[in-house]
Amino acid sequence: MRRLSGNARLDGRGRLVLPADFRDRLGLKPGDEVRISEESDSSLRIESRRTAAHALIGLAGSLDHSVLEDLAADRREQAAAEEADALRSGQMLSVSADTAR
Asked: Can you give the CATH number for the domain in which 9 is found?
């Protein structure tokens, strides 16, 4: 992807208008919010809220599977372990691993 570069000017009220090429590239529409941060080299980084959210999601892990699927699998494992414990101690559980899905 081609990197954009351009100039903008602050108006008398301190507002900065992003050039149309940047707005188009970021998918920004009037009224959208952006995140602005200062980088270690004193440059400014502007990203859409959607991009910032995807970056945070990326920190949490891959999106190649559902978190709900992980939770359901964990619960099935817990239920199976509980059932095995109950069978060892001679008790019956009212909920089996199959009904916990």
From this structure: 2.10.260.10
